[in-house]
What we know:
7-stranded mixed sheet, 26% strand, 9 helices, alpha/beta, 5-stranded parallel sheet, globular
Amino acid sequence: MKNQIVIVGGGTAGITVAARLRRAIPKADIAIIEPSGKHYYQPLWTLAGGGVLPKEATERDEATVIPKGVNWLQDAVTEFRPEKNALMTRNGKELSYQYLIVAPGIQIDWHKIKGLQGAIGKNGVCSNYAYKHVSSTWDSLRDFKGGNALFTMPNTPIKCGGAPQKIMYLAEHYFRKQGIRKNANVIFTTAGKSIFGIPKYRKTLERIVSERGIETRFKHNLIEILPESKEAIFEQLDSGNRVVIPYDMIHVTPPMSAPDFVKTIPLANEVGWGDVDPYTLQHKRYANVFALGDASSLPTSKTGAAVRKQAPVLVNNLLATMKNQPRTSHYDGYTSCPIVTGYGSLILAEFDYDGNPKETFPFDQSKERESMWLLKRYGLPPLYWHGMLKGLA
């Protein structure tokens, strides 16, 4: 099978790029390889885990988001052969391409935390990082009566770097509303060295955790869950020592990495991500290959908002490559992290590669605002479904 353009991945990045390409070159032969029959708007999983809306509101059939005229192959890639301009699929098919776009998203490595896979979804162990587990977070919040409520962040890149603390702020607010906050020790354990990387927003978040009595433990990386004794084991990254913290509920953000089939191919860099130029999104060794989104080596936060800015750059540079013209579009690392700080409040962090704020609105976005909460809850989902995925935003 041969296609002019093959897109690996039918998530946010793959569909957005496909829609833009279909608009730019209506007669192009484009194929998307995506094994899942469902498509999810994952930014709302935090709110689903906090009981704001049902998780079903985030799900649609994959067939409904495939751009008209694009060929969907419901299959999975197992191997890339860039020297031959070809790839292999799980069903044993070899596909050739003229141009390849790698956008398979990120892999959730549940197995890298010992004991987690058998414990997740039961007895206070929960996570918003998979559709099937989101309901367990809301169950854990409602069942919680007091004790230690732990919220973890691993020592790997993850999708939506602010999400591990978003659900923590919702939980702390929920405990206050239920009148049990005085019985709760809310603890944020993170492998990072601070609450947030960008100083402007970090100052606000440091104030929030201080005012709300949230305990922060930095450079703590979760390595094991002991569900029988309800204990979490952390590696203290400075010393290498093991730290045991008992829990009554624990929201786990699991380690993540590029999909295995990306890590083991000639398209990956030394740490496994699709190896592309950070500004043009073109592969560093194969001129007919591009990558964007979570599986790429782009040194920015892995968010849908980043994809929204990456997609037009990739499409413009791919079109230039097809015409043997210079690649003049550049991505500056823009990403956005709407940090939910409670029911009805949100900080909209926006910044570039250099950590400089790149804010959309004419006010200080480092302040908690109800208007930004309403934007996340009611404004961004339609923008996603009817704008990004249609190639219009």
